[in-house]
Amino acid sequence: MVRRHKLNLKLVTLILTLLLVACGEENTPTPYALPTVVFPTPTLAPLTPLPVQSLPGVTFAAPTTAPITTRTVPPTPTYRPSPTPQLPNLPAIPTFSPAKPEGLVKTVTTWLNQQKDALPAAENGPENARVRLRDLLVNWKFIGAEVPLFTGDLDGDGKLEIVATVADDWTRFPSSISGYGLVLVLKSNNNGWAGSTLKQADLKPQKNPNRDEFVYPKLEKVDDLNSDKKAEIVFSELYCGASTCTTTLHVLDWASSKFTDLTPEVPVMPSAKVSFEPGDIGTTILFSGGGFGSVGAGLQRGRTEYWRWDAASKTFKLVETKYEVSYYLFHRVIDGNLALDKANYPTAITLYSGALTDSTLKLWFNESQGTPQQIQDEKDILTAFARFRLALAYALSEDRANATQTLQTAIAKDGKYSGWATAFSGAFQASKAPTASAAAKEGCVEAVKFSKQNPGLIEGLNQFGYANPTFKPEDICPTLK
Question: How many CB atoms lie within 10 A of CB 301?
């Protein structure tokens, strides 16, 4: 039975083999193909905001999201930026030599005289010429973008002149190695423009023989400042050292191509700015600033100087100086000195008295972390000096009784600084002069003598930095100056 089963199996295998051979090749099965599946795009149902929670007595405000602001990066500051205007047919930059400005004047006037709308006789000719000249000088970097040019009737002939200040290279920092320049005035001449120039050596040939030109001259104003029906030229110079920039101010008159200096007492001030205040008798020039950047300058406060036309001298003179309010004892004493120098004795008495009685006044060395000894020395010297000056102010105002009483207090209280009062009092009391003010002058002779014999005493007033006055022994009594 088993043998027959094996035989049948062999027979089936043989038949299948013969069938495959008869077909000629093996049948290759068809690969299985995956059906294409399309996934539908999901759609999101709109969100339903959650109800705002509410509690009894409590209200929750709906939250708000502040928009994110884009941070603006500040531009890198540059000193006197000078954009370059695009001008047609510009002349080549002339060689700048303030000592020999003829090349600059010729280039400028030749170019302007080729512009028909910039000729003096053209409609708005002077103004057109001013605008074009300014753009030209900015393009050459002979002035900064903030430096103005002005027109004005400088000689009173009814015709406008053009005024400019120029420097050899306005892009560099104002220092001793660059920025040398001059003043340029253009006047109409035969329906064209002709130029006049001024350099430092022409203005004050003996003032500074080592410098021929102005340093970074900047035009401030061209206007009638003294009511003479002619415009004056106001310009400044700027020089910067390691820590502080200093401004020098000039006022000029110009007529018949000749410059006249109207500020022989040259205003000079650190960290200064210039402004103008019109008035009934002319314009006052305000010169404000006074701050030094150096630590060695010491205790400081700003000031404003008032420069006004003086008809007698035909110059601009300093008529008043106003200082910023200060709450330092030192400045209160200095203000008393200023009043005494002007013979304003009531004000001097008030200020010196305040220096002795006002407990709110601050000590410089206390504020600047000085030693206890420095703080005490400052208080002692300022108190003694104020008391001595108070006695002097009483005497000069013919108040002998208060002068005498104040001197006695000084002798009793001011220790090593009482020598000034002792020397003064001896001569003051022994004087046969008919008035207290005359006797005060005799007292000052002895006080100055003592001060010169003991110069170290007044040196205590010279420890507040170079921004402040320097006192010499003879300064104990200002009436002897």
Answer: 16
